[in-house]
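Why do we bother with holo predictions? Because pocket geometry can differ from the apo form. Keep that in mind while you read this record for magnesium ion.
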Amino acid sequence: MSDIINLLPDHIANQIAAGEVIQRPASAVKEMLENAVDAGATQIHLLIKDAGKELLKVIDNGKGMSETDARMSFERHATSKIRNIEDLFSIRTMGFRGEALASIAAVAQVELKTKPHDAEAGTYIQIENSTVLKQEPCGMPSGTSLAVKNLFYNVPARRNFLKSNTTEIKNIVDEFTRVAMAFPNVGFRLTNNETDIFLLEPGNQKQRIVALLGNAFNAKLVATEQDTEYVKIKGFIGTPQAATKTRGNQFFFVNNRFIKSAYLNHAVSSAYQSLIAKDEFPAFVLFLDIDPEKVDANVHPTKQEIKFEDEKIIYAFVNSAVKHALSKNSIAPSIDFELDPHISQLSSITQPFTDIQRSATQKEFLFNTFTQKGTAHLIDKRNDLKNWKELYKIGEDDNHAPSMDMPTREPMHNSTQLQHGLQQYTESHIQMLFGKYILYPKSSGYLLIDAVAALERIAYDDYASALSCQPISIQKSLHPQTFDVSPSDAILLNEVLPDMHALGFEIEHFGAQSFIIQGVPADIESGSEINAIEKILEQIKHSSSDIKLDKREKLLRTMAWQKANRSSIQMPLDALKELCTKLFQSTQPTYTPRGKKIIVEYSLAAIESRFNNEA
Ligand code: ADP
Ligand code: MG
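The structure, written out:
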């Protein structure tokens, strides 16, 4: 038998490699922009024609290349960025694989012009199909200009595979955005068919974000910073209002490299939990700075995926950084009292707030609603529910021990009067509508509260605190019942048994797939115990398959939902009132743990406008 193996010629090998690195104009753009950044450029100009199919050109004022380097740079595995394998683990540059230029030159007509700062003349090189057609000195300013023409002209299958111009331009803009986002101190410009799409001045991170994502973000960004030995996290996250129905505004950078990571996205979105609707994605631009030894950027040809030494640590840090930023955001809650006319006459209202009082109130607001419960930032930022909490809190004021830093507290009686005035007004008007909604009047409109949803929120909070501190008391059964479940359910049930115990279910494993019920929460009707447990298992298995919640969270949500749905909402006024109080004191009065709306507000202004009246 004759020998059949032969070595592929370089240009074919390069074309094959190009298949991985250069899939479309946007991938070439990414490599070219990153090379310019690596070259230390402070001004980078990208020009495209016909969505990059006709021309992609990057002009930079970076360090340029010598004549020899210019020629070398198109060789496969030609790189100035690493010398040995160890260097790979201390990499701080964007490139290092030394294959981008070789790949591009294999699938396009390329013209390079480059000049180092200290050279008299530059070098011009023309390459097609991996073959140098021309090389000569040229006059030019320091830096590099790389023109990539007719991408895939020699690989028709790939050229035909390209999408519409709109799509390809969008891909290019995405890549441009990612690089420009990571280097705000570099000026970037993007010109499409002679028209500038972006002209980005060097600036700070926030300016760059706003320049790229739009002015609307200016007021919707919250600075995020978390410094640890292991990783430094810095950047901005969007307020809940900046959330969108698509993932468009989510940016993670690790050592300035844009990466895609569903896992880390989850670390962010879970910090927003009930702050945004379930089908919305928070906006964020986060930079993780981590010892290059602890990440491997070389697991993907285009380096958009990386491997962390310890992903779980990163997850935890990111999650906490975001939570922290969200909470800090509520430091200046928009407190604007709007009171009923007959209340606003009281001296406690007419006398102006002193600065000290104001800051004390703010502190207290923070203390009461956030530090304790964790989610106040929502309350005044979300929708226009910003007044009801304060309105309600006035009545609550005296229940709190005077705080140490509140030297000039108002005389007790004023506050009490106020409390009475407000409570009487509200109480006498609270009522149940359509057997479902609680009508809760306030001075500047009214709230409609979904009673079952409110119960769900309250039950959830109760259960959550039961798990963390005070277990719910168990109603012992007089006649313990046994029941069987499927083998997989038995595993699941065993896993959640300790938590269920804290939540009032005393169940014991009773061999193989059998369990015995010794007691259940008091509100479960006798006779329906097994049914309740089966339902819980069912829902834990099927709830929120789209998000990875842990079993405990699923159990909590399921039980809260069940409890709410088996409670009667036909209740006397007193109980309704208490329900509202509890809701307002809950961790997140506006949404249930599953993301359903609890409160809808009708503001007086909105009502007035429907009558064409002026508010
Ligand atoms: P890598 O970036 O992985 O090293 P590339 O194929 O992208 O590989 O580039 C090869 C080499 O060419 C780089 O290592 C760098 O030395 C040089 N180079 C490429 N683009 C530029 C540029 N715009 N300015 C200066 N040097 C460049
Ligand atoms: Mg490169």
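The first strand starts at residue 43 and ends at 49.
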